[in-house]
Amino acid sequence: MLTVESMPDPDASDPDATDPQTVPEARSALDLSGRWRCALDPDAVGELEQWFRTGLPEGSPAVALPGSIQHQGLGDPVGLETPWTGSIVDRSYFTDERYAPYREPDNIAVPFWLQPRVYFRGAAWFQREVDVPADWVGRDVVLSLERVHWESTVWVDERQIGSERSLTTAHRFDVGRLSPGRHLLTIRVDNRTVVDVGPNAHSISDHTQGNWNGMVGALTLAALPEVTIRRVRVVPDVAARSALVKIDIAAGSGGAGTGSVRVTARRFNVPGEHEPGPVSATFEAGHSRDLAERGLTAGGTHVDVLLPLGDDALTWDEFHPALYELTVELVTDVRGSEHRHVARTVFGLREVGVDETQVTINGRRTFIRGTLESCVFPLTGYPPTDVASWRRIIAVCQAHGLNLLRFHSWCPPEAAFVAADEAGFYVQVEGPVWANQGAALGEARPVDAYLYEETRRILDAYGNHPSFIMMAHGNEPAGRDAEFLASWVNTWRTYDPRRLYTSGAGWPAITENDFDNIPDPRAHRWGEGLESRLNGHPPETESDYGEWVRSRPRPIISHEIGQWCAYPDFAETSKYTGLMEPRNFGIFADFLREAGMADQAEVFLYASGRLQLLCYKEDIEAALRTEGFGGFHLLGLSDFPGQGTALVGVLNPFWESKGYSTAEEFARFCGPTVPLARLPRRVWTADQEIEFEVQVAHFGPTPLDADVTWSLVDANDTELATGVVARGAHIPIGNGTRFGSVAVPTGLVPTPAQVRLVVSVTPVASGEDAAGAAFQNDWDLWVYPAAEHEAPDTVLVTTEIGEAVERAGAGATVLLELAPESIGNDVALGFTPAFWNTAWTAGQAPHTLGLLHDPAHPVFRHFPTEGSTDWQWWELLHGAKAMLLDRLPQRLRPLVQPIDTWFEARRLGVLFEANLGTGKIVVSSLNLDPSGDRAAARQLRHSLLEYMAGDDFAPAGRIEAIDLVSVLR
After folding, report:
1. Which of 478, 634, 474, 623 is nearest to 555 (CA)?
2. Fewer CB atoms near the end CB (10 Å): N or C, the chain?
3. SS3 content of the chain, % helix, strand, coil (to 5)
4. Sign of CA dihedral 576, 582, 586, 591
5. CB of 128 within 8 A of CB of 154?
6. Where does the record place the Glycosyl hydrolases family 2 sugar binding domain (predicted)?
7. What is residue 29's three-state secondary structure?
8. Do the Cβ atoms of 617 and 669 come closer than 8 Å?
9. Is residue 915 within a helix (H) or strand (E), and if so which, with residue range?
10. CA 792/CA 795 separation, integer angstroms
11. DSSP state of 788
12. Residue with more model confidence, 590 or 9
């Protein structure tokens, strides 16, 4: 009979929980961490020579486990024949003379990912003696290896126990019964591709963690009682404030028995006044239909316990991560002998669902703000299994306003779930599969069955964690993926309905999905190049994805948005003190030095990084502006060092700042509550009213009552204008709250000026509640004079290079405006930085990473700018062409310099000045066309001509006519 009884204070000691007599797994476990003998077996002779019987070859070194062999220096030097796991799209490394110095045997350096100090692919053998205690007589023994890469085979003495091949959960071996005393334990680990899950799957690929060999995490040998708790599954019911505890019990072959199950729950991870005493439910043997009527038979049984949590039970979410520790105590009697086993798990009172086109947590709509974790751990080459490491990563993500980690084609260790549970952070887990680039699903290959195996393991091992709210099979499949994954979704949603399922990250979008994780609704898609929204259309902040929302009945989570690159941070190389080395950065630094620009590396990083941040802001805000949108996954908040070196993060692979962005700045436009301004344009003229509409995306814990205000501030943060949008406005959960249009009168902004529009949402006091801090967001705008400017008659403006050479040579001051068709190089110049990277995308446009210039230079006196690309440069870059300056004197630095991709490191310019003959010249390949609605172009042209006509125009460098002709090639 199920009963509820009072329990002691949870802070008091619980003898049942701590007494080793009642927790046999704690007393009866041997920690196997420490020194093991190790032998590499590249030729697979160990089994033929029976190393498990004879011992490892003489002279085999000792290694520390948990750990990997590569991290401890065992393996081969990297060479041109290294059998990498991972596709190499740009194979020019193996043939291009530019890479010849890096193909020398004593100087191997690859440009496409981080390079391990040593490499090994094959079998490695690990061996040690273990002493089995005397009181293990008659008890079954289990070996558990928390995380193995990849296939393990185990022998005890001369007896082969079996093999395991999971990439996601612990390898567990039923050893049987061991006699007391010393035994030889041998484990063979093979890190070759056991199943073709795809060469680029982050579970195995050298693009990410590296193809390591070894065992990490907990390594234990444990003795179990005759009857054990095999699995505990907790199914919360938020409305009923209860949980259904589903208990699977495993029994040995000793025959029938009886027993009882006692279930208790203790709340923790919640501030003081919300810590009531535990709740208990007991199942007594004499009243349990499962245990008494059916009996405890050989093989086990199953018990369901309904556990009331009380009317005051707290739910779990990103704002209030209340957790419960569940203890299941099993007491059984088999053949007159009592057996006890205790299992514990953590759960939260949490339900995830769908309300039309948005995800809900406990019935409240939320907005997924995710980023990828791609198993990038450069110091070790394998993922951490300690909670502290994951707490740090999650804290960094939360500081940037995110609420989810998507584990791209891999499943993290238990510690990641624990840290996410504690922090109230959401997790999307994926199977260890990227069945593409030669692999495929639904074609009766071994990967089909393997995916089902791994999915079951993941759900059984980690399914109770409340942070685990979403699951995909893996990433971007090929094959008969739609029909195969339709069945996969239905199967596992039925098996474990505690989370949402989607077929795959990227595709296919099938009706069986709970949500679609697709790549279409984002600012820049694969292959769009200079036609993408941010490159092909004037800047505004009105675009959204409403058509996508209306096109399907399910939530859409944008797949891998962003992918904007920043320049390499060469100062980062000192951080790589472990297994992985950034030899790729060494190559790129050499290219930059050879081009005479090594001194610009730091400013290239900063200028490209500020443009990257600008693009991420617009990408994220477009998603937040879309009413009913489900959310997004960034690719990514941190850099991805593989796939050709994809420096797409505002953080480096160590989850640290690269110096051009802060978490506070990022969180202004990425968080639970974000003010938004819908602006039809970024550039205005003095005779135009600045018009915008305020929108609020609010996915906080409760609706808000708030004052909504705006202000225009100048570069010194001086307010130029302010206004009230609404007082005490009620802002419900969602992003459909839009207020009427605001028009800022003309004449308030002196021209030319760069100003910031700041929108504030300030919660107001309600009753005894204090008002909260304001949520703020801001947008840079530019206001230029409306009148046309007259060109000074002292400057000759021409588009003909011959005329420019002749007149400047004779002493004139010349502005040469080059048309894009007159410049013959293949550099694709765009507004945005490069997408992913030019090597992996086969040279997709754009090839550049923004502009570098000195904002204090007098050429910009009438054109406010900050030294990097901002939205006022869009008109000037759209339709423009970069010039190659490599044949000009190296001391000549352009006034405006596009930053080239690090794979090429070409000296580029779009505006430079020089002395030519007895005259002076400025050469521009920017789009300075002043006609029509091009106020920014007119203004820069005016500023440039005023500079050239003034006393400040004194170029330091000199060129000859042949130098000038060279930029046309």
Report:
1. 623
2. N
3. 20, 35, 45
4. negative
5. no
6. 32-190
7. strand
8. yes
9. strand 911-916
10. 6
11. P
12. 590
pLDDT of residue 292: 36
Per-residue tokens: 201: 């799957």
Domain assignment present for residue 210? The answer is yes
Q: Are residues 640 and 677 in the same domain?
A: no
Whole-model pTM above 0.90?
Answer: yes
Question: What is the helix (H) or strand (E) element at residue 587, kind and residue range?
Answer: helix 583-594
pLDDT in tens, 656-702: 999 999 999 999 999 999 999 999 999 999 999 999 999 999 999 99
What is the CB-side half-sphere exposure of residue 219 using CA atoms within 13 A? 18
Q: Which residues contact 331 (CB under 8 A, 6 or more apart)?
A: 259, 260, 262, 338, 339, 340
Give the 3-state secondary structure of 630-673.
CEEEEECCECECCCCCECCCCECCCCCECCCCCHHHHHCCCCCE
Structural tokens at position 461: 């091992």
Closest CA to 649 of 386, 367, 402: 402
Longest Cα separation, the chain: 113
Alpha carbon 202 to chain centroid distance? 12
Three-state secondary-structure class, residue 289 = helix
- Binned at pLDDT 50, 70 and 90, residue 25 comes out as very low
- 789 lies in some domain: no
Please, which residues have CB within 8 angstroms of residue 406's CB and are 6 or more apart in sequence? Answer: 370, 371, 372, 373, 428, 430, 470, 505, 633
610 falls within a domain: no
Whose structure tokens read 């506070």?
664
Using alpha carbons only, give the angle 836, 526, 443 rounded to the nearest 5 degrees: 105
Strand partners, 915: 920, 958
The partner residues of 341 in beta bridges, in order of sequence, read: 330
Residue 348's contacts (CB-CB under 8 Å, 6 or more residues apart) are 236, 315, 316, 321, 322, 323, 324, 421, 466
Omega into 278 within 30° of 0, i.e. cis? Answer: no
Yes or no: say if 949 and 795 are a contact pair by the CB < 8 Å rule: yes
Element (H, E) at 164: strand 159-164
CA separation (Å) from 615 to 170, 602, 620, 914? 41, 20, 9, 33
Helix (H, G, I), strand (E, B) or coil at 530: helix
Q: Which of 83, 86, 88 is nearest to 840 (CA)?
A: 88
CA distance 416 to 319: 18
Beta strands in 547-599, from DSSP E residues, in sequence order: 556-562, 580-581
What is the residue-wise DSSP string for 727-773? EEEEE-SEEEEEEEEEEEPTTSS-SSEEEEEEEEEEE--BTTBPPPP
Question: CB atoms < 10 A from the CB of 286, how many?
Answer: 9
Same domain, 282 and 368: no
With beta carbons less than 8 A apart as the criterion, state whether 690 and 708 touch.
no
| The pair of three-digit structure tokens given for residue 785, joined into one six-digit string | 């004079």
pLDDT band at 6 (very low <50, low <70, confident <90, very high): very low
252 lies in the same domain as 314: yes
- pLDDT(285) > 50: no
d(CA 459, CA 169): 10
Report how far residue 279's alpha carbon sits from residue 300's, in angstroms, rounded to the nearest whole number: 27
Burial of 889 (0-12, 13-18, 19+ CB in 10 A): middle
Q: Which contiguous run of DSSP H or E holds residue 127?
A: strand 123-132
Say whether both 257 and 383 belong to one domain.
no
Closest to 758 in 3D by CA, of 721, 798, 716, 793: 721
Is residue 831 one of the residues assigned to a domain?
Answer: yes
Give the count of beta carbons closer than 10 Å to the beta carbon of residue 181: 11
Q: Are residues 317 and 359 in the same domain?
A: no
Q: Of all helices (H) and strands (E), which one includes residue 684? A: strand 683-685
Structural domain including 717 reads 673-681+687-784
Average pLDDT of the residues of the chain: 92
Q: How many domains does the chain have?
A: 5
Statement to judge: residues 41 and 152 lie in one domain: yes
